[in-house]
Amino acid sequence: MVKYFPSNKSSMFPITRMRRLRSSKFLPLVRETTLNVKDLICPVFVDETAGKPVEINSMPGYFRMPLGMVADEAACISDLGIPAIILFGIPEEKDEIGSHACGDEDVIQKAVGAIKKQVGDELVIITDLCLDEYTSHGHCGLVRGTEILNDPTLPVYGKIAVSHARAGADMVAPSGMMDGMVGAIRSALDDNGFQNIPIMSYAAKYCSSFYGPFREAACSGFTFGDRSTYQMDPANTNEALREVELDIEEGADIIMVKPALPYLDIIYRIKKKFVMPTAAYHVSGEYAMIKAAAKNGWLDERKVVHESLLSIKRAGADMILTYFAKDMARELNS
Ligand code: PBG
Question: Is the N end or the C end of the chain the one with fewer CB atoms within 10 Å?
Fold first, then answer.
């Protein structure tokens, strides 16, 4: 005879058996979180200097695409059912003020045009809006000496936003962490007739060492200092809530937390508090770690990727920017 524990309501064994529903027959019925291809946003690096796809050393299996191939790449992503891409440009020429971030004939503007022409409205084209890939010093704003200037950078962001929208971008994603950037971009877009272009703001973007491989990918390593005077201290949570609140007030339509896995608590709190469409960026370092471990046979890549992305959703993200988007889509489609 099995004994019950009537005095302790939380321990109703053997009446309550959590394992009953853990047979493969019931698992799908009681699963609380699912990953969907429609949750994914695929980053694409467009390299104006490349003649063919160039594999990124620290991101095995990921490539910088030449302008001439980016539309095909976008079509392939769209065919997998992925609803959106986010574009990063690597210009041929960089200068102090990032001049090539906003010309009609610059790398991103041309890439957007080519993709729109080939893929049409099937795919949401998001453009990363920042200066670091375009400046010779690699910082996200204009600089004077070693200072990253806030207010003088804002009109430049506005100009870039308008150039992206004019090229055909469906949404802009400012990632520079300058104060007031969302408001400045919203005004610039509105003043130029782009009231319907949404802003996905990198609202809570941490000063993270997990961006290392991206800086190789986008050739955006900086020549002095670091980003700690504009990106967030990894120690802080309340500050993230304030950042998000300000961005919403300034007109952000989607808010983003970045990186993802080390900041699941931030995703959770932000989703709970603001109930806004929330994105999480599973960044380059997170990709590189999984790839490296898998290469050594230490982790099962497919399973670890699935578990990672599922965790990000479970924490509250509605959409995930990830370098595993194509792999994940293939898996989910099969
Ligand atoms: C800045 C930007 C960065 C990333 C996206 N946008 C780099 C940085 O802030 O240094 C990082 C993305 C990643 O690591 O995957 N334009």
Answer: N
